[in-house]
Design a protein that fits this description.
The protein is α/β, with parallel strands linked by helices and 420 residues long. The protein has a domain of 255 residues. It contains 6 helices and 23 strands. The strands form 3 sheets. Strands 5, 6, 8, 9, 11, 12, 14, 16, 18, 20 and 22 form an 11-stranded mixed β-sheet that branches. Strand 3 and strand 4 form a beta hairpin. Helix 1 crosses helix 3, helix 4 crosses helix 5 and helix 5 packs antiparallel against helix 6. It is globular and about 70 Å long.
Length: 420
């Protein structure tokens, strides 16, 4: 296991791209000076971290890949990242899939503006400073993908830190479709910091679905940024199923007039899971729109956190933006925090948010029981119906059935064991 020191920097990540070289240097410098975040900081409120990155190490080499899981679907092309290293790249017609170190420098140049800041926090600094050979998926100008590229991201070596990085680029007037599956075994302790950045060019479209199916003892601190050009369109789906601590800190920068961001997500916590979403939607151009729709449930002693901010800059007139977060709390020990925020600097906008936290609806239960269902099955039907609205909106419907099954399995298991 390699410690997080300058001597352990992965040579496979060396690149001739100036902005990547700069981020490597900035990351190493920031890692030395930035402390571990604490719940005193607003962006880490409600979260207590019980480890320090400096105490972790990187795998000497990638371990053996996992066998296919329930979320494995057919794709136009495939790539596999194990313990932070790209181990499999399968070509796709019309789409370029490559290691970042092997990518065309001219293609990578267009991704610079979507980079996550190296000094965002200690996790981002570690990703840039010590991360390995990341993956790039690129759709050329005018190209249209006939199916999704499937990226299987795995952490398999217990006791190590994994730093996978993915760069997506959809050039102008192209259409790119990507499914990212995040996985690790239930046996063993893993720490993972996935980095994902995406550039969606003028009049381009990106369909992106991420599934967090981490093992029960995995801590995943995900960071993500998408930048949209003029008339660009993003449809992002997210499913939070696994992990001991699953955090996704993501930014959408809507920089081009006429661009639209659609985010749909769901999450379900059990046992003592913590599922944490921090969403920042930045409208920086006029005539742009965004909609965020997240639904979650927590049972046992699990906890969920949603903090969402829609920021509309002064020059971003005629913006229409909305965010919705609804939560079911299914046991007395579980808890959900929902904190939507608006920051509006323009004066001609339509903007709003909705947030709810509460138990199953007693009136709906009564109605269903009056139609012949017992309480057990009436509550199951409520939970299924609650999530169905989000599942039906996911951009890749081939994932709907396994996600639906995972959510239902969690609730039924808790009912059978008398935990709800």
């Amino acid at each position: 296991m390699r410690p997080l020191t300058v001597d352990s920097v992965d040579a496979r990540a060396d690149s001739e791209i100036p902005w990547l070289t700069d981020l490597r240097r900035q990351g190493l410098e920031a890692f030395q000076r930035l402390p571990m975040p604490t719940s005193v900081e607003e962006e880490w409120r409600y979260i207590d971290l019980d480890f320090d990155l400096a105490d972790l190490g990187l795998a000497d080499k990638p371990g053996a890949p996992m066998t296919p899981g329930p979320y494995d679907v057919d794709g136009l092309g495939r790539a596999t990242i194990v313990d932070g290293s790209v181990v499999v790249v399968e070509p796709a017609d019309g789409i370029t899939i490559s290691r970042i170190a092997d990518a065309d420098p001219l293609l990578l140049a267009g991704a610079a503006d979507a980079a996550i800041p190296a000094d965002l926090d200690r996790f981002s600094a570690a990703s840039y400073g010590f991360g390995g050979d990341g993956l790039m998926v690129h759709a050329a100008q005018g190209s249209v993908a006939s199916g999704p590229v499937v990226v299987d991201v795995q952490a398999v070596t217990p006791g190590t830190l994994s730093l996978p990085r993915i760069v997506l680029v959809a050039e102008r007037q192209s259409e790119l479709s990507v499914i990212i599956l995040y996985r690790s075994p239930d046996e063993g302790v893993f720490h993972v910091v996935p980095h994902l950045q995406a550039t969606v060019g003028d009049n381009a479209r990106l369909k992106l679905t991420t599934v967090q199916a981490w093992g029960t003892d995995t801590t995943a601190i995900g960071q993500q940024r998408v930048v949209l050009g003029r008339d660009a369109h993003l449809h992002h789906g997210e499913a939070g199923i696994g992990a001991a601590l699953g955090r996704l800190h993501f930014f959408v920068d809507i920089d081009g007039p006429g661009a639209h961001s659609e985010i749909t997500g769901l999450y379900f916590g059990e046992a003592d899971q913590v599922l944490d979403y921090r969403a920042f939607i930045n409208h920086r151009a006029p005539h742009t729109t965004s909609n965020m729709f997240l639904k979650g449930a927590v049972e046992d002693a699990s906890h969920s956190v949603f903090t969402g901010l829609i920021r509309i800059e002064a020059e971003a007139q005629r913006v229409n933006a909305y965010q919705t977060n609804r939560n079911l709390v299914l046991s007395d020990e579980a808890g959900a925090e929902s904190v939507p925020n608006l920051e509006i600097l323009a004066n001609d906008v339509k903007c709003g948010h909705a947030s709810t936290v509460g138990p199953l609806d007693a009136d709906q239960r009564y109605y269903l029981m009056s139609r012949g269902l017992d309480r057990l099955h009436a509550d199951r039907l409520q939970v299924r119906g609650f999530f169905e609205e989000a599942i039906a909106r996911l951009p890749h419907q081939q994932l709907a059935d396994p996600i639906r099954a995972a959510v239902n399995e969690k609730y039924v298991r808790a009912q059978d064991e008398g935990r709800t």
